Amino acid sequence: MVRQKVVVLGAGRVGKVIASDLSNEYEVTSADINQDALASLSSRYRVKTRVTDLGDSKAVSDAVIDADLVICAVPGHMGFNTLKTVIESGKNVVDISFFAEDAFDLDELAVRRNVTAAVDCGIAPGTPDFLAGYYAGRMKIHDFEFMVGGLHFSRTKPNQYLPTFSPSDVWEEYTRPARYVRDGKVITMPPLSEPELVEFRIGGHTLVLEAFNTDGLRSLIKTMEGRIPNMKEKTLRFPGHIAYIKELQETGRPWTPDTWKPSDDEDEFTVMRINIRGSENGKGKKISYTVFVTYDKETRMSSMSSATGYSCTGVARCVLDGSYRRAGISPPSYIGEAQGCTERIFSHMKARKVVFEKEEESYG
User: Fold this and answer.
1) How far apart are CA 246 and CA 342, in angstroms?
2) How many CB atoms lie within 10 A of CB 221?
3) Which of 40, 109, 125, 128 is the 20 to 30 Å CA partner of 221?
4) pLDDT at residue 263 above 80?
């Protein structure tokens, strides 16, 4: 049987997880300009490599010419143009890039090229959106909120944080205005605003983290308009991080992401809580999901890379086998609404040790 061909654009932390996971079933090629990253990947997994300048649209077009599916795992500042190039090439694509542009600006192009373009398919945005789409079709949702953070147990000072994904995308979170929805209206707040302390009970211990506004709702603002009147996303960090970032911003001290770069074997974790409140069959209902993922010593994959990558590969498998097919831009809430996709993606992640614990209660 001929194996389907997948090209993963980007061999960074998340791209590595995606390529390695898909290589078990598909013919995978990893494309990147970083030859060391490619060599590290091909030495451990059955993955072909291709040295490619992903900032060159012609090089990207050439790299994906034989692909049955393309996955974009590039930094946010490259994401929109890379996605556009892939769509112009007529290739189905799953994207995890955290770009600032509106993906729906490429919807007409994707429809014209008959391309399924699934975007924002990581841990967040991604998994909360799947659930928003899934439950919006089953109950009336009044409030939808999620909080997420990737952190190191060492609490590196003075910043209390080391990036668990692209440092440039981390800084983007701290500078891009934060949007949320209240009573059906979009509210814009400064990033890092409305801080609060949140407790998590993890393994018998209490973990206290600092939550603050960031622009993580993304496509939900559009896709859930008129369906969910109150929505909010917050980022989680150790207490003290907000003060450090504001000091950098206020004093004009340089952002030097290289000094924040963790090693590949840092002991770190990703935590997220998703709260859904609404009503079903005349009764109030509250549903909560909590996920806590740690560094995998066996695979040497970080928790954020694993959680993001396995969400992406769950969607990729749905597209590859035809379970999900929709010409145009597909944000994750569309995928969540599709028959069987949410259950399949969460089961796929659970098999890879990314487990969402669910609590549900009815009242009234």
Assistant:
1) 38
2) 15
3) 109
4) no
Strands 47-51 and 27-32: parallel
Of the options 3.40.50.200, 3.30.360.10, 2.60.40.10, 3.40.309.10, the CATH number for the domain spanning 127-303+353-363: 3.30.360.10
| Secondary structure (3-state) at 255 | coil
Name every residue whose Cβ is closer than 8 Å to that of residue 210 and which is 6 or more positions away in sequence. 195, 196, 197, 198, 236, 237, 238, 239, 240, 241, 242
Q: Which residue has the higher pLDDT, 357 or 156?
A: 357
Tens digits of per-residue pLDDT, 55-74?
999 999 999 999 999 999 99
CB atoms within 10 A of CB 48: 16
- At residue 355, φ and ψ (nearest 5 deg) are -110, 125
Structure tokens that stand for 339 in this block: 């028959």
Residue 165 has pLDDT above 70, yes or no: no
Range list for CATH 3.30.360.10 in the chain = 127-303+353-363
Higher pLDDT, 282 or 93: 93
**Which residues is 10 bridged to in the sheet?**
none
- Specify the CATH architecture of the domain 5-119: 3-Layer(aba) Sandwich (3.40)
How far out from the chain centre does Cα 360 lie?
A: 24
Domain with CATH 3.40.50.720 in the chain: 5-119
d(CA 270, CA 81) in angstroms, rounded, equals 29
pLDDT tens for 298-349 read: 888 889 999 999 999 999 999 999 999 999 999 999 999 999 999 999 999 9
β-pairing verdict for 356-363 and 328-330: unpaired
Q: Which two tokens stand for residue 55?
A: 């900032």
User: pLDDT per residue over 86-137, tens digit each?
Assistant: 999 999 999 999 898 999 999 999 999 999 999 999 999 999 999 999 999 9
Three-state DSSP state, 173: helix
Q: Please identify which residue in the block is written with the tokens 């997880």.
A: 17
Distance CA 356, CA 317 (A): 20
* pTM, full prediction: 0.93
Report the C-alpha gap between 232 and 216 in whole angstroms. 8
